[in-house]
Structure formats: structure tokens, C-alpha cells
Amino acid sequence: MKFQAKNEIQNFSFDDAVIEELKIAGSDIIFSLKGAVVKADNSQNARYQDMACGAIVLQLENAEIMRVIKEGYKYYDADGKLMDEVPNTDVPAVEQSSVIKRCGAGTIFTTVAGEFEGKPLYEFGIDVPKQEDEEEVDTYWLCIRFENSTASWERYLGPESD
């Protein structure tokens, strides 16, 4: 890859990035994404403005999935009356691999940065088309703790427009 940023995950925006592939390789978690943005303050960005980069590989080294959550929802009628409510639920460990596989066809809508026991922690909010109706989505949160991150990409597409 032509460009590589080590431990600069905070200098990217993965909002609306489409996941082309999500795999676990040993102790690493690797996202192949389309549509990420390299922020202006990234060490590999000489333009000093947010730049779309097309295809990018994000590798989280010595990663551990801390938690997988299926986001709940609320349904309201036209008058604003609550009709139905489903709370957030933790995905049991035995089901996590199938959820992660499904996330490989999803879209990241946001990320939340944090830290746990001195290591970076990122929560990836991912919308995944429902199996029975691809027009609707299930929303999952992957909470991943890792030691290092490496983002690699070939080229920039151009400045990100507001």
C-alpha cells in the first residue's frame, strides 16, 4: 500500500464506510472498507483537509472483541404514542461469530473512541441488511479493544465535501 498510518485511528472518519470484508486473522481484526475519510490532521495527509481515500484496510492488532450488542428500537404511531419497544441486547458469545460474519456486509454509521485498561477501545456502530428483507437493517455495536492500529490505502479520491 502506498499510504500507511500507524496508531492514528482517531485521524480517520469511518462514518458511512461500507464494509467489503471483516475477518479475524489470529489475534487481529481486519476491516476492508470503502468510503473512509482521512482527516486533515493525519500524518499521511499532505493536503491538510479531509480527503476521501476510496478503499482502505484497517488492521486492529492484538484485538479482543469485548462486547457485541444488538441495538434496540422504539416504534411510535403518527401521534407520537409509543407502540412497541425493544431494548438493546448483548449478543451471547456463541452467536457472535455469525453476527460478525453478517457485519462483513454492513455499513459503519459511526465510531466511538475510548480506552479500557490502558488500551484503545473502539465501538463500531454497524447497520446490516436484514436477512429476510434487505430494505431493513439490524444495528450492531462491535466493541473492540486492541493494542495497535494500522490503516493502509493506495490513493486519495479528493477533498471530502461538506
Structure commentary:
By secondary structure, the chain is mostly beta strands. The protein is built from 1 helix and 16 strands. The strands form 3 sheets. It has a 10-stranded antiparallel β-sheet with strand order 1-15-7-4-3-12-13-14-8-11, with helices on one face. A 4-stranded antiparallel β-sheet has the order 2-5-6-16, with no helix packed on it. It has a two-stranded antiparallel sheet with strand order 9-10. The mean pLDDT is 91.
Summarize the structure.
By secondary structure, the chain is mainly beta.
Tell me the radius of gyration.
17 Å
* Count of strand segments: 16
Summarize model confidence as the mean pLDDT: 91
Measure the end-to-end span.
Answer: 27 Å
Report the principal-axis shape: globular
Q: Biggest sheet, in brief?
A: 10 strands, antiparallel
Poorly predicted regions are none
Enumerate the strands of the largest sheet in spatial order, edge to edge or round the barrel.
1-15-7-4-3-12-13-14-8-11
Helix content: under 10%
N to C succession of SSEs: EEEEEEEEEEEHEEEEE
Structural classification: mainly beta
Please count the helical segments.
1
Mind sketching the topology for me?
Elements: E1 3-6, E2 12-13, E3 17-25, E4 28-34, E5 37-38, E6 51-52, E7 55-61, E8 64-70, E9 73-76, E10 82-86, E11 89-90, H1 93-103, E12 107-116, E13 119-129, E14 137-145, E15 148-153, E16 158-159
Antiparallel strand pairs: 1-15, 2-5, 3-4, 3-12, 4-7, 5-6, 6-16, 7-15, 8-11, 8-14, 9-10, 12-13, 13-14
